[in-house]
Amino acid sequence: MDNFDVIVIGAGPAGYVAAIRAAQLGLKTACIDDFKGKDGKAALGGTCLNVGCIPSKALLDSSKQFWNLSHSFEAHGISAKDAKIDVGTMVGRKDKIVKQFTGGIAMLFKQNKVTPFFGKGRLLKDRQVEVTAADGSKQTLAATNVIIATGSVPIELPFAKFDGKNIVDNAGALDFSETPKRLGVIGAGVIGLELGSVWKRLGSDVTIIEALPDFLGVADADVAKTAAREFAKQGLKIELGAKLSKAEVKGNEVNLTYSAKDGEKQLVVDKLLVAVGRRAYTDGVLADGTGVKTDERGRVIVDEHCWAGVEGVWAVGDCVRGPMLAHKGSEEGVMVAEIIAGKAGHVNLDTVPWVIYTEPEIAWVGKTEAQCKAENIPYKTGSFPFAAIGRAVAMNEPAGFVKVIAHAETDRILGVHLVGACVSELVAECVVAMEFKGSSEDLARIVHAHPTLSEAVHEAALSVDKRAIHKAN
Question: What is the pTM of this model?
Answer without folding.
Answer: 0.96
